[in-house]
Amino acid sequence: MGKMNITAYTDDSFSKVHKAAMELPVSPAKLKISKSIRYAEDKQLGTLNGSNTYVSYRPETLYFECLLDRTNAMEENVNQKIPVHDMVNELEQRLYLYNTDGHRPSFVKVQYGDILFLGQLQRLETEYTLFDEDGIPLRAEVKVTLTGYRSRKEEQKSISQCSPDVSRLVALKEGQTLAALCAAIYGDPLLVAEVALFNNLDGYRDVPAGTEVLLPMLKKE
């Protein structure tokens, strides 16, 4: 299956390499991919397990654990030993440290066998568990959580922003009415009352600009 490779990128299209691929010296001890969906809760009084409305897919997450050990007990090539702290530093340079060219931490690509994950760091934990007589770490357990990332351009390719079949959260623009928004999304401004009710608005006239409105999946009759 090979070793896990981690590459850092400056841009969200994953085309400009910031740090070349780092190959982990050992395979992950644990790897987990999580997927979830966001729903809008049914706000009607007295409902139990009501008809919650689909809003969007949440970003996937990738979690893996890896034991970095440079003792003779687990060393594959004792003549090419790399200090544990140096390996952790190389990992932090790709996952955590600020990328001055991108003005943010790097975007990350993880390749492991047939698993390809594009994302950014959510959490990095390093626990040193063994030291030599000089206090130099010999063993470290690393736990990494990445959250998936896809640029707006790629997102727009996969889901049409004008489709009434996808729920979305939209902020009203200056001068835009709720009825005009319904006309643009659903092709029917008369659905404005239903949208206002769904969002618990007092009415659909004079909704302030910047108000976030959840547009559920609706069809004009």
Walk across the major sheet and give the strand order: 2-1-9-10-11-6-3
What is the level-2 CATH architecture name of the largest domain? Beta Barrel
Number of domains: 2
Percentage of residues assigned to helices: 10-25%
Distance between the termini: 54 Å
List unreliable stretches of 5+ residues.
none
Major sheet, described briefly?
Answer: 7 strands, antiparallel
What is the CATH topology of the largest domain?
A: Elongation Factor Tu (Ef-tu), domain 3
Treating each run of at least 4 consecutive H or I residues as one helix, how many helices? 4
The count of strands amounts to: 13
Radius of gyration: 24 Å
Written as H for each helix and E for each strand, in order along the chain, the element string is: EEEEEEHEEEEEHEHHE
Please state the average pLDDT score. 84
Backbone shape: elongated
Structural class, by secondary structure, is alpha+beta
β-strand percent reads: 35-45%
CATH class of the largest domain: Mainly Beta
Give a written overview of the molecule.
- The protein is α+β, with helices and mostly antiparallel strands and 221 residues long.
- The chain has four helices and 13 strands.
- The chain has helices at residues 84-95, 152-158, 178-186, 192-198, and strands at residues 5-9, 17-23, 30-34, 37-40, 53-57, 61-69, 98-99, 104-105, 107-112, 115-131, 137-148, 168-171, 212-215.
- The strands form four sheets. It has a seven-stranded antiparallel beta sheet, with helices on one face. A two-stranded antiparallel ribbon has the order 4-5. It has a two-stranded antiparallel sheet with strand order 7-8.
- A hairpin with a 2-residue loop joins strand 9 (107-112) and strand 10.
- The longest helix is centred in the middle third of the chain and has 12 residues, at 84-95.
- It is elongated and about 75 Å long.
